[in-house]
User: Fold this.
Amino acid sequence: MKILEDRILKEGKALSDSVLKVDSFINHQVDPVLMDQMGKEFAEHFKEKNITKVLTIESSGIAPALTTAAYLQVPMIILKKQTSKILNGEVYQTRITSFTKGTSYELTLYKEYINENDNVLLIDDFLANGEAATGGSRLIEQAGANLAGIGIVIEKSFQRGRKRLIDAGYDVYSLARVAKLAEGIVEFVEE
Ligand code: 5GP
Assistant:
């Protein structure tokens, strides 16, 4: 998506060869117009998939997931990051290791918001090693629902997440695909 790539080149900061900072329009300050455009693009891409719910992971996935859900006219569900297990039987949980922070958390979904009739679109801000997305897919599986597609705002194509998700048979659509990062350098995959 050209407008997103241009914005990354203008405002993104490659902190190292593996971390891209986009705090001025995605992760800290949020550009609502760009979020709307991205939601429209995701909705257009997945429109034939009969999506019934859009799932995302707090907190930076929420903005693009909300606009996508609005265009698809379905509810959005936020998977919560809990520090510990909830033992009351009302939730699905799975353990995730965070790429940026190196910490672990329990990704949590209340059972009442999803069931085996749901056709789910998972949206997240970044795809790195695929930990968050595969964790989301485990919860969707626990619920007996179908993961119909995965929409990613920024995919770091040089990390293993994309291959992992494609190998698992998922339909992955990324709005920007970063081929290379180095201090001060961002290059995209030629498509
Ligand atoms: P994964 O689970 O695919 O290994 O990592 C994806 C998650 O880590 C995303 O939800 C995002 O929050 C965070 N993340 C991974 N790489 C980056 C990055 O380069 N920049 C930012 N801002 N977040 C990242």
User: Anything to note?
Assistant: The CA atoms of residues 94 and 135 lie 6 Å apart. The pocket of guanosine-5'-monophosphate is lined by residues 19-22, 27, 57, 60, 99-100, 124-133, 161 (CB under 6 Å). DSSP finds six helices and ten strands in the chain.
